[in-house]
Amino acid sequence: MAKKKNKSNTPRRKRMKRSSRLQAAKHWIPKYNGKNLVSGYSNYFAVDKLCAVKELEMLGHTFSDKYKQELKDNMIRRQVNKERRRTEHRKRELEMDLFEESDETFAFIAGYTSGGASYGITWEEWGDIEKGEEDLESSFEEDEVEGENGVNVVRDEEKNNVQIKEGAFSNNQKSVIEIEEDDLPF
C-alpha cells in the first residue's frame, strides 16, 4: 500500500517562505486587478501589510514613508488593543473564578436551605462591602481619623504601625492598642 501524502488544507501560497513568495509574486502582480496592491498582496500571501510593503519594494514598487509609518502605527495600535482586551478578558475570568458559587442574585453563595433555596451575600451587599473597604483604606491615608464612640485611629509612618486610641470602651476605660501594619488583613 502506498504511503498517503500529508495534505494541508491551507493553500500553498499562504505557506510559502519569502523567497518563494517573491518568485510567485512576479507572476501574480500583473494579474492583480484590485485597487490596493499592498492589501491584495497581504491577503493573497497571508502576510502582514508591513511585510507586504517590504517584499513589494524588493520587487521594485515604491511607497511613501508616510504610508509606511501609518502601517506601523496601525500595527502598534492593534497590538496594544489586543493586549488590553486580553488583560480585560483575564480579569473577567479571574473574577468569575472567584465567584464560582454565584448567580444573578448572590455574589457568594454560602449554602442552600433544606428546601433548596440559596443563601449568602447578595451583589448589593457585596458592593457595600467593597465600598466600605475603599472607605477604610481612604481613612488610613489621613494621619488621624476620629471614628465612632470616640475611637481615634493614628497612623505612624516612622514606626510603620497604626495606633487605635479608644475612649468608649466598657466602663469608660481609655486604652491604646498598637497594631503593626503587617498584622492588618489588608
Molecular structure report:
Residues 1-20 have a biased composition (Basic residues). Residues 1-23 are annotated as: Disordered. 45% of the residues lie in helices and 17% in strands. Helix 2 (37-45) packs across helix 3 (49-58). It is elongated and about 75 Å long. The longest helix has 34 residues, at 65-98. It folds into 3 domains: 12-95, no CATH class; 101-141; 142-186. The N and C termini lie far apart (70 Å). The strands form 2 sheets. It has a 4-stranded antiparallel sheet, with helices on one face. A two-stranded antiparallel sheet has the order 1-2. It has helices spanning 18-28, 37-45, 49-58, 65-98, 123-141, and strands spanning 106-112, 118-122, 144-146, 152-156, 161-166, 175-180. The chain is of the alpha+beta class and 186 residues long.
In short:
Residues 1-23 are annotated as: Disordered. By secondary structure, this protein is α+β, with helices and mostly antiparallel strands.
List the helices and strands and how they pair.
Layout: H1 18-28, H2 37-45, H3 49-58, H4 65-98, E1 106-112, E2 118-122, H5 123-141, E3 144-146, E4 152-156, E5 161-166, E6 175-180
Antiparallel strand pairs: 1-2, 3-4, 4-5, 5-6
